[in-house]
Design goal:
- By secondary structure, the protein is an all-beta fold.
- It has a single domain (about 1-200), classed as Single-stranded right-handed beta-helix, Pectin lyase-like (Pectate Lyase C-like), CATH 2.160.20.10.
- The protein is built from no helices and 24 strands.
- It has strands at about 1-5, 15-20, 25, 30, 45-50, 55, 60, 70-75, 85, 90, 95-100, 110, 115, 130-135, 140, 145, 150-155, 165, 170, 175-180, 185, 190, 195, 200.
- The chain has an eight-stranded parallel β-sheet, with no helix packed on it. The chain has an eight-stranded parallel β-sheet with strand order 2-5-8-11-14-17-20-23, with no helix packed on it. Strands 3-6-9-12-15-18-21-24 form an eight-stranded parallel β-sheet, with no helix packed on it.
Length: about 200
Amino acid sequence: MVVGAADGFGYPPSEIDIENIGRGTVNDVIVHNTCGPLGEGAQYGINVFGTGPVVVRNSRATGAFTDAGIYVGGISDTGGEPLRVVNNATFLNHQGIIIENSFGNSIIQVANNNTHHNNIAGVGEPASGIFINNSDGVRIRSNTVQNNGEFGVNISAGSDDNRLVQNTITDNPVDLNNQGSGTCGSGNTIGSRSGNPLTPCG
């Protein structure tokens, strides 16, 4: 278990920080924010930035991370292999999982995660289970996304050609907010919907 990161520990304030490496694995860890409210505690549980095909799996991020339990950003080239966020649990944060500013030659898979009750006050966009921001081609598969703050899955304008397959996205105030273009879906269980509908995946 990793506990206790705060703003004073450097930027970005996170409990596990993985930046600018070719590859690596975070496996079977628990990250828990214990350092206070918004402005004092850690923004991220696990931060992955500017890397190659890193794997984050079998881990748990909880305890009021004010941006995201798991953050992946600035991914531009994974060398033909996927960067994977799989089999994790994220809850009681502002956002459960964020994929941000990732496109180009990147392959990113978000699969088999359980993200729920991410509804605390935080920074940036409204609270959600999974937030795809300015990122293309993300593969979102077999996740359970329930009882989050404002959105279950929130896909921003400028996030295009993503794929949602066999997810359960229910019991959120707005289950799917799809503002991008070209995103397709297949085999999902989705409650209320706002934004552009999903086209069927071929």
